[in-house]
Amino acid sequence: MEEPLLGKVHLPPYCPPLTNGNLKAHILTINVGGRRAKLDAELLCSRVDGGRLGGFARKTHVERLTECDAFFEGGDEYYFERSPAIFEYIVDFYITGKLHRPMDVCPFRLRYELDYWRIPVHLLASCCVIEDASGRTRGTTPAATTTAIAHEQCSAMLFEKVVWGKQRYALYRFLENPRSSMAAKVFSISSALFVLLSLAGLIMSSIPELQDDQKEPIRGLIILEYCCMIWFTLEYLARFLVNPKKWEFVSSTLNIIDLFTILPFIIEEFLPLKWMKEIRGAMLVIRVMRLARVARIFKLARYSTGLRAFGQTMKKSAAELSMLGMFLVTGIMLFSTAIYFFERDEPNSKFYSIPAACWWCVITMTTVGYGDLVPVTTGGKVVAAVASVCGIIVLAFPISMIIDKFAESTGHWGTDDEEPPLSSRRNKSKR
After folding, report:
1. Is residue 374 part of a domain?
2. 320 occurs within a structural domain
């Protein structure tokens, strides 16, 4: 059996025993392929559980001789016939706690060495992840898998001190992580189908043949709407009740979308339409609420890796999008003012103001070209040509940067249906 870390062991005279008093002072000299490193025994034991060097430091000198490849008495060096290039990064990991990799080493060779030294591969720093042939970001195991493991550990910790913590955590994983079980996968697919059914019902309710005399949907579509809304409401309440971080749940983007999907239906049910019509401006509120039903399409982001990656890309590309907007506004103001002064004196000119010219400039620079406003003067046509070319350049300029962000986001969401992260801080009060 392996001896305890702080227990006294018997070593030859030239190697002092590891006791509680001198453990911190004990230094081991490790020689790997000619690369020497003097490492603190306590550091080796505490950095990673189950590591080869940690177990090596706990052993007696005689036991170490059976594990290493050679021992040099002159320098008290334990020799290992392994790769010195990779061992340099392993030494750095024990010293700093950050595991990096040499960029010129094959990922499979790296994993082979890490397995030998018994260092978990998922500890590889995010800056040293490896891309496979498909372009997905990996750190010999997927970076997203590593993140998911960390999230799951943090989530389990949060449920330790809450009422019915074990049961709530099981239900939380069932609701939030479709990969946790087959039943969770079926539930996730069912939720996505309800979203699609609600969208189909919303679309069909606008068809005149599927409306009654009051231009309201037929009974079948109303029943479908009720079924979908009941499902969405129960699902939202279940997620809310089992989640230990209530405020973080409510403020989450996906959960805000879920709430906006439910609220219009609830408000219309509890506030009768006839009563609302008697209030000034109430019909505008009703129209806005009905328009908000379209927000349910964003619920698909919960079940689509691509949509989540797209949203993450937009968030990360805020600087690039701001730059694009600034360029467009500058071009619109410049070209709309120029074409206004060229075209305003023409008979029946539609460029009667700079705001009207701004509409034309937006359509031209974005290469849409409706054709409702057309310059007729030579100067106006020159401005239109320059605006078109500048629009193409402005739109193309940040595209490569945004594509890089999208590739990074798709790498992060590499594991489908990843459980959403919870804060790693423990919740001290019972819920």
Report:
1. yes
2. yes
Q: Are 357 and 333 within one domain?
A: yes
**Do 280 and 326 share a domain, yes or no?**
no
Same domain, 193 and 292: yes
Give one word for 371, left, alpha or beta, with left for phi > 0 and alpha for psi -120 to 50. left
Residues whose CB is less than 8 angstroms from the CB of residue 174 and which lie 6 or more positions away in sequence, other chains included: 180, 181, 183, 184, 187
Domain contains 290: yes
Across 151-161, average pLDDT? 59
Q: For residue 209, what is the domain's CATH number?
A: 1.20.120.350
DSSP 330: H
Does the pTM surpass 0.70? The reply is no
- For the residues 150-165, what does the mean pLDDT come to? 62
If asked whether residues 251 and 203 sit together in one domain, one would say: yes
Q: How confident is the model at residue 387 (pLDDT cuts 50, 70, 90)?
A: very high
Domain match, 235 and 291 both: yes
CB crowding 276-301: b at 16 or more within 10 Å, else e: beeeeeeeeebeebeeebebbbbbbb
CB 144 within 8 A of CB 418: yes
Same domain, 252 and 346: no
Tens-digit pLDDT profile for residues 67-94: 888 888 877 889 998 888 888 888 888 8
Predicted pLDDT at 275: 62
Domain count, the chain: 2
For the chain, the average pLDDT equals 76
Over residues 230-237, the mean pLDDT reads 90
In this prediction, residue 337 carries a pLDDT of: 92
Copy the structure tokens of residue 378.
């030579």
Tell me the C-alpha distance between 207 and 216, whole Å: 10
List strands edge to edge, sheet with 130-131: 130-131, 137-139, 141-142
Q: What is each CA distance from 82 to 68, 90, 260, in whole angstroms?
A: 10, 12, 59
Domain that holds residue 369: 316-409
Distance of CA 166 to the CA centre of its chain: 26
DSSP 263-328: HHHHHHHHS-HHHHHTSTTHHHHHHHHHHHGGGGGGGGGGT-HHHHHHHHHHHHTHHHHHHHHHHH
Strands 27-32 and 35-40: antiparallel
In a domain, 39, yes or no: no
Q: Are 382 and 341 within one domain?
A: yes
